[in-house]
Amino acid sequence: MRGSRIYFPRSGPPVPEHITIRNNRLYDYGDGSNQGNVGMIKIDRGGATNIFIHNNVIHDIYDEPDGSWDATINAQHFAAVTTLSSEAYEGIEAASTGYIEIINNTIFNVPQMVYFKNPAIGPIKIEGNTIYNAQSIGIWASSNIEFTRNLVYNVPRIINRGGGSGRSDPRIDERSSWNFTITDNTFVESQG
Fold first, then answer.
1. What is the pLDDT of residues 91-106, one digit of tens each?
2. What is the rounded CA–CA span in Å between residue 58 and residue 74?
3. Inter-CA distances, 163 with 76, 79, 81, 152, 176, Å
4. Radius of gyration of the chain (CA)
5. Which one of 117, 150, 169, 176 has the fewest beta carbons within 10 angstroms of its own beta carbon?
6. Of the ranges 2-6, 36-40, 165-169, which one carries the lowest mean pLDDT score?
7. How many angstroms separate the CA atoms of 25 and 23, rounded?
8. Are 170 and 156 in contact (CB under 8 A)?
């Protein structure tokens, strides 16, 4: 799939669930909207769960349709896989992003592998991926993330742990960046 993306928009019942994205190549996607929260695979708020992203090759995402970076400040909002969750916008009773697997993918030439923008309960399993030529693994504001047996190289920053939601309800902040497991990975010339 060249020049396009897979997008699960915000929706009411029924929510997106039990979706498998397997054995695809997604590449050369330019988004000229100059907005953030862009992903080659984007799961918007609405309680999506049981999303399986396996054995894909995902590369080359830009903020301009011609393959360039104009507003590089937006790079932090671009990733191979981007998720948003509803709690930070609508309160604790809103739908939380649920179980996601990102397994055995090859991801390169992207600002980040993942951008988990908002607090969410997950869990999220990231395993057996090869990630290279990225600015970072990503921003992680979701909880219950297992990052294991991945190969990471030419990625100067590893993980940017997401902060609180900025909302007054402490239960939302309890879903922000808790319970990380990072085991059995290979990092080459990485830091942070």
1. 777 778 889 999 999 9
2. 19
3. 14, 18, 19, 24, 6
4. 15
5. 169
6. 165-169
7. 7
8. no
